[in-house]
Amino acid sequence: MSVVSNITVKVPGTTANLGPGFDCIGAALKLYNEFNFTTLDAGGLIIQASGIEAAKVQTDETNLLYQAFVKLYQHIKKTPPGIKIEIKLGVPLARGLGSSATAIVGGLVGANYLAGSPLSELEVMELAIAMEGHPDNVVPALLGGCRLAATSSTGWEICDIPWHRDIVPVIAIPNFELSTAEARRVLPTEISRRDAIFNISHLGLLLRGLATNREEWLKAALQDKLHQPYRQTLIAGYESVNEAAINAGAYGMVISGAGPTLLALVDITKAKSVETAMTNAWMAKRINSIVRSLRLDTQGAVIL
Ligand SMILES: Nc1ncnc2c1ncn2[C@@H]1O[C@H](COP(=O)(O)OP(=O)(O)O)[C@@H](O)[C@H]1O
Ligand SMILES: N[C@@H](CCOP(=O)(O)O)C(=O)O
Predict the structure, then answer these.
(1) Which architecture characterizes domain 167-293 according to CATH?
(2) Where along this sequence does the record place binding of ATP (predicted)?
(3) What is the pLDDT of residues 265-299, one digit of tens each?
């Protein structure tokens, strides 16, 4: 059997939560990081990064991608090989677009392949969820599409969520960061029954709205009581961008992942006007942003 010593893994960024689906639903986006792994016979670790915000990526053992790589070898009780990792970044860091999920999934998938694929996709997914602490970004990063994850008595049940082809996510990425850890610290640990019912009903509505593109359902569905009310104040310009997106015809706007990226769901006919409105609203607050309509990735992590 020949031993593979070089591979490239491409992993999509994600948008998690989609409003009422905190910590359980997320979608993969056509926005990618690429990770190339070359084993080093002499041992050691070399990490090089290029692309968007590459200078911010750690290049030593603390690198999250490398930690995931090592985690897989620990799991299969083998010593990780010396490795050179080349990172090509297309997903901006700490913006709520799942950059950490791409690193975790990329490191695990790369290590699993180099180790001769001892783990199934399901086992890789379970390791990824354990590392990230919640499933909503690592699952779509690994599998693609829009996915809902729920615990079962044996582990996780994952289901793919139908997404009407005319619903477009407009992604508005500001030029400031918000770490997921910081955005989780502001959340309450207990919620009221009223808020739980609110979110259960709105998530149900969202699932049907995404499948049908029915305007009145989607307009109501994107509301949330579990995380967005507590995080909005961490995102400068939130109210203005929300108002601008809705006035331009969006069904609604949510925080992408833990933020600060904001995501409007729109019918395809309104995508351009919503892009312009969100850009201008942030500009009026002296905040530069990149605003783009992105389609869903359907493949998840792939080995090139
Ligand atoms: N490609 C990468 N390689 C290594 N580490 C990464 C990579 N992408 C993200 N990270 C790590 O994840 C952190 C961002 O994670 P997090 O705060 O969860 O934001 P995000 O919403 O982008 O996932 C970065 O500061 C960095 O430490
Ligand atoms: N459910 C999590 C999702 C975090 O996603 P990320 O893309 O910001 O890493 C949360 O909202 O904390």
Answers:
(1) 2-Layer Sandwich (3.30)
(2) 92-102
(3) 999 999 999 999 999 999 999 999 999 999 999 99
Pocket test for ligand 1, best of 15, 52, 93 (most atoms within 8 A of CB): 93
60: Cβ–Cβ under 8 A, 6 or more apart, which residues? 45, 47
Which is nearest to 82 in space by CA: 6, 8, 11?
Answer: 6
- Looking only at the bridges linking them, the beta strands covering 146-151 and 45-51 are unpaired
Instruction: Kindly indicate the confidence band of residue 4, based on its pLDDT and cuts at 50, 70 and 90.
Output: confident
Question: Known binder of ligand: residue 94?
Answer: yes
Q: What's the CATH fold of domain 6-161+297-303?
A: Ribosomal Protein S5; domain 2 (3.30.230)
Whether pLDDT at 146 is above 70: yes
ipTM rounded to 2 decimals:
0.98
Ligand 2 centroid – CA 273 distance (Å): 27
Angle at 111 between CA 299 and CA 147, to 5 degrees: 30
Model pTM? 0.97
- Does the beta carbon of 180 lie inside 6 Å of ligand 1? yes
